[in-house]
Amino acid sequence: MATKAEDVLKDLKSGKYAPIYFLQGEESFFIDEISDFVENNALKEHEKGFNQIIMYGKDVSITDVLNNARRFPMMADRQVVIVKEAQNIQNLGKEEHDLQLINYVKNPLPSTILVFAHKYKTLDGRKALSKELEKNVVFVKSEKIKDHLLPSWIESFIASKGHSINNQTAVFLAESIGNNLEVIGNEVGKLLLNFSEKTAITKDHIQKYIGINKEYNTFELTKAIGVKDVVKANKIIHYFSLNPKSHPLIPIIALIYSLFSKIAIVHYNKQKAEPELARLVGVPPYFLKEYKIAANNYRLGKVIDNISYIKEADLRSKGVDSGEEDREILRELVFKIMH
């Protein structure tokens, strides 16, 4: 049975280790968090030289992994075997080799902690290996957090570090960085290094230590598009073109798509009461007004057209039928959307 990453980490922090962890899914943040904790804490530092083995999927087969897992620890109570990028294990998914892993899963060596960090993919749930893993090991399905839950996750994450952030500032951070927990975690980590005492994180802190400009960021771009402020939208696009490494195109397109997806929901649910509509849109009630204004500015037919423009720009940003610079793709996209 699949287990939540938060529950696994809670057990690990209390010193409870299992013989096998299989961590899989699209969201790499939780996979890294668990595997890094085991790597850093399961053994004492002096035990790691003989008893901690780090392997990479592209370099090993199932047989290699299991041969190491079946070793006994040297001068320690246990050993740790971690397979990073496990989705690249050479023969994973082939019946004969999956059977080897199934046999080990049913009877693991108690003195070994075996961790599979299987990123960006999931096993075929219909196959025997996936079913046996769900039954017999600590099995984590690490899924992307939905956009509307991201601010709450940021609040909890910062609280776990001994600091605080209010919901509006968390929304600002989420909208500015996008739905990438690894990037958010890294940026928040760098920000918090600047505070030794409990601190309430503000937009000024984010601007100063993460480098998100309060006027020129993706959050302000989507607001400008929503209210049809052409001048401000173009100023922000120009600012992005001067700092392309800090403002990659693909996450910007994803946030513009999120904006118009929410506007479409408003159009299709106009008759709903505001609390229910806010829930459907996936925003706190006090943000709903912005999406209702945007829905007035973009009729449903235009919203549908804009979503097709966004999908086209997304393909071009990934090099499909395009050799254009990112800034030109974004400039053209916003022009089509707003005119």
What keyword list fits this structure?
two-stranded parallel sheet; elongated; 339 residues; alpha/beta; five-stranded parallel β-sheet; single chain
Strand fraction band? 5-15%
Q: Report helical residue fraction.
A: 55-70%
How much is the average pLDDT?
Answer: 90
The helix/strand class is: alpha/beta
How many helix segments?
A: 17
Strands of the widest sheet, in order across it, are: 2-3-4-1-5
- Strand count, sense and closure of the main sheet? 5 strands, parallel
Rough outline = elongated
Q: Could you give the count of β-strands? A: 7
Q: What distance lies between the first and last C-alpha atoms, to the nearest angstrom? A: 51 Å
The poorly predicted ranges are none
For the CA atoms, what is the radius of gyration? 24 Å
Secondary-structure element pattern, one letter each? HEHHEHEHEHEHEHHEHHHHHHHH
